[in-house]
Amino acid sequence: MTALEMIKQIDVLTHSSIRIRADKIIYIDPFQIDGNPKDADVLFITHDHFDHFSPEDIKKVFKNDTTFVIPEAMREVCGPLLAKENELICVKPGQKMNAAGIEIETIAAYNMNKEFHPKENGWVGYILNLNGIRCYVAGDTDITEENKKVNCDIAMIPIGGTYTIDAEEAAEFINGIKPEIAIPIHYGNIVGKLEDADVFKSLVDSSIQVITKL
To answer: In whole angstroms, what is the distance from residue 65 CA to residue 100 CA?
Structure first.
């Protein structure tokens, strides 16, 4: 599979909510979900802010056999959502492991010059290896020493500013890690303007394809 073929299986739903229709149905930070699909095979949470950890929306997508992957610090808040059959995998930054048959890596996600996402909280972004394509979902982050080393084919990166990097910083980051495809997220809803995607795209190297999924 190529990165362009994988893109057809990725939906950015609202804000930073992502659904991937690969061999398994994967959700990352489900938020403002339409309907009650209850189709998640694997559910990844990056951190516990309301726009990323929404119990209401988690209940709309999870099944009794959904595998939950969460930062270690969220173990207690996620516990009440789980059925007996659910597998809970708690992660810390800098790990490589298998989750429900998916090879994953966890990348530290934190602020460098803001107080919203402290490094000590142990929050994460994820690299998912799906059919040989490395898909990076950055979480809420600034440019850090850890994520500057990310190797991926597709990068989903926040651009809205205020709580994360803005469009200009996100373009700098993408030009540094050089994925084949970049998808801006975390803008146009709670924070950031829809026009931020145009700014981001204009600053990304022409060798990198920018796809706006909103």
So the answer is: 10
Mean pLDDT, to the nearest integer, of 145-174? 95
pLDDT in tens, 67-112: 999 999 998 888 788 877 789 999 999 999 999 999 999 999 999 9
Q: What's the DSSP call for residue 100? A: T
CA distance 93 to 40: 23
Instruction: Considering only CA atoms, give the Rg of the chain.
Output: 16
CA dihedral 124, 181, 178, 47 (to 10 degrees): -10
Which residue in 41, 61, 128 sits closest to 53, CA to CA?
61
The pTM of the whole model exceeds 0.85: yes
For the residues of 21-32, what is the DSSP string, one character each?
A: ESSSEEEES--S
Element (H, E) at 59: helix 55-61
